[in-house]
Specification:
The active site is at residue 2. Pathway: Purine metabolism; IMP biosynthesis via de novo pathway; N(1)-(5-phospho-D-ribosyl)glycinamide from 5-phospho-alpha-D-ribose 1-diphosphate: step 1/2. The protein has helices at residues 14-23, 51-54, 57-61, 108-119, 128-144, 151-164, 208-212, 251-257, 269-287, 304-314, 337-347, 352-355, 371-382, 420-427, 437-445, 457-460, 470-498; strands at residues 3-8, 31-38, 41-48, 67-73, 89-91, 97-105, 167-175, 179-184, 193-196, 202-205, 217-221, 226-231, 236-240, 263-264, 267-268, 295-298, 322-324, 348-350, 359-364, 387-392, 431-434. The protein is of the alpha+beta class and 503 residues long. A hairpin with a 5-residue loop joins strand 9 and strand 10 (202-205). Helix 4 (108-119) crosses helix 5 (128-144), helix 9 (269-287) packs across helix 10 (304-314) and helix 9 runs antiparallel to helix 15. It is globular, with a radius of gyration of 23 Å.
């Protein structure tokens, strides 16, 4: 899960891309990057860290041009500590190509070998985005060899890309001297939309909030399998480039990842979370008497709409019982389990007045590893709660995710192989209520008539691309262990420096 944006304008775009990335910061806090083009020359700056830390005045001045793109990174493939794997990625042929990508290629390792053995292209990192840009570059080179690069040729190249790569991908690329290209995987797993400003400026981004927050009007979402090409004259060309496209957006976007003020594939994220709260209330009523509950308290921030609707449905007061430190990153997307656990109490503080002597129902958007939930339940008890119940607006997360969310091994998931009672005991709650999978799908799908379904593999184990095997999970487990070892070194060094010791 990353945030991506691309702009084509008649005015400098560096500040505009910066502003859009701030609006997408929730989608990735590990690294950020911007590239701009002036004529046929690229200017790039990328580094680890938050947008506000990566880009200083001197960096912004070094990004001239009226075309550009940017990305905030949340690593699900490769090394979280390797700045070379921060996006955008660049290749100099054909034309000069720069690309950002949100998602995860499930056949990246097979493609890497294919690129070396057949296409004669070398991949220098473990990032699947480098694999992707080289596949795109190779296919563009094939269609444009000794010929001008027309929109039809671009769409032909994208069609060939769809046939070669598997998994989830929302892509924005700049082709030097030609324009901006954006396309989405045939299942539409990761989001992508585009819009226009009053003065004719075009923007493509992961979420509608990036457009609206920068003065652009949302035109529509890029359809699954569709390619959008905006040439240097500002003319928009679109074409369906996949053989059997079918919209299956990621359910976890609506549960947690997206901002509530975004609209994705015609579905209001806020309304989806309200609907989840209503069905969660029905689930709770069938599980325990609401009379046992004194107050409903959300665990900030994504759970608030669901918690409000649940409280309304069961007729109990809704209260804000936790204060969030907004200067600490989202714990779910922090690399390393140790960093997550340490940051929970830095991130949240309980208001004792709302807990003391009460039976409280805490509502969270989801429970993934259980580490955060366990800490928060304990915080509620320490704040004086009589009983602590916990409700999850999402069903149990039982299966690994391979499409760009940081849930790659079943061993890390608290609900995998455990009963709800066993999870409850681990977390330490007096009761644990989960959302129902089918109910969740039904109430979110109701907001988009004709929707074919959702990518909800972490809840139901159904991998819609049909190419995920047990061997893939074994490979991912090995990569995960290797990455954890690589991450442990920098983490240990930082801890030693903070304590004044030798690393």
């Amino acid at each position: 899960m990353c945030g991506i944006v691309g702009v084509i304008s008649q005015a400098p775009v560096n500040q505009l891309i910066y502003d859009a990335l701030l609006l997408l910061q929730h989608r990735g806090q590990d690294a950020a990057g911007i590239v701009t083009m002036q004529g046929n020359k690229c200017f790039m700056h990328k580094a680890r860290g938050m947008v506000r830390d990566v880009f200083r005045t001197r960096n912004m001045r070094a990004l001239p041009g009226t075309v550009g793109l940017g990305q905030v990174r949340y690593p699900t493939a490769g090394n979280a500590y390797n700045e070379e794997e921060a996006q955008p990625f660049y290749v100099n042929a054909p034309f000069g190509l720069v690309l950002v990508h949100n998602g995860n290629l499930t056949n990246a390792h097979a493609l890497k070998k294919e690129l070396f053995d057949i296409d004669r292209r070398h991949i220098n990192t473990e990032s699947d985005t480098e694999v992707l840009i080289n596949v795109v570059a190779h296919e563009l080179e094939r269609v444009a060899r000794d010929l001008p690069l027309t929109p039809e040729a671009v769409f032909k190249a994208v069609s060939a890309v769809h046939k070669r790569i598997k998994g989830s991908y929302a892509v924005i690329a700049l082709i030097a001297g030609h324009g901006l290209l954006a396309f989405r995987d045939p299942h539409g797993i990761r989001p992508l939309c585009f819009g226009q400003s009053a003065d004719g400026e075009f923007m493509v981004a992961s979420e509608s909030v990036a457009l609206e927050g920068t003065g652009h009007k949302l035109t529509r979402d890029v359809a699954p399998g569709e390619a959008l090409f905006i040439d240097t004259q500002g003319r928009v060309h679109t074409q369906q480039c996949a053989e059997n496209p079918m919209l299956n957006p990621c359910m976890f976007e609506f549960v947690y990842l997206a901002r509530p003020d975004s609209v994705m594939d015609g579905i209001s994220v806020y309304q989806a979370r309200l609907n989840m709260g209503e069905t969660l209330a029905q689930r709770l009523i069938s599980t325990m008497p609401p009379s046992d509950i004194d107050v409903v308290i959300p665990i900030p921030e994504s759970s608030r709409p669901s918690a409000m609707q649940l409280a309304h449905k069961i007729g109990k007061p809704y209260r804000e019982g936790f204060v969030k430190n907004r200067y600490v990153g989202r714990t779910f997307i922090m690399p390393g389990q140790g960093a997550r656990k340490k940051s929970v109490r830095q991130k949240l503080n309980a208001i004792g007045l709302e807990f003391k002597g009460r039976n409280v129902l805490l509502v969270d958007d989801s429970i993934v590893r259980g580490t955060t939930s366990k800490e928060i339940v304990q915080m509620a008890r320490e704040a004086g709660a009589n009983k602590v119940y916990l409700a999850s607006a999402a069903p149990p997360v039982r299966f690994p995710n391979v499409y760009g969310i940081d849930m790659p091994t079943k061993e890390e998931l608290i609900a995998h192989g455990r009963s709800i009672e066993e999870v409850r005991q681990y977390i330490g709650a007096d009761a644990l209520i989960y959302q129902d999978v089918d109910a969740m799908k039904r109430v979110v799908a109701a907001l988009k008539p004709g929707l074919s379904g959702f990518e909800a593999s972490c809840f139901d184990g159904n991998y819609i691309t049909g190419d995920v095997s047990a061997e893939d999970f074994a490979t991912m487990r090995e990569q995960r262990q290797s990455q954890a070892e690589e991450e442990d070194g920098p983490a240990r060094t930082r801890l030693a420096l903070q304590s004044g010791q030798e690393p």
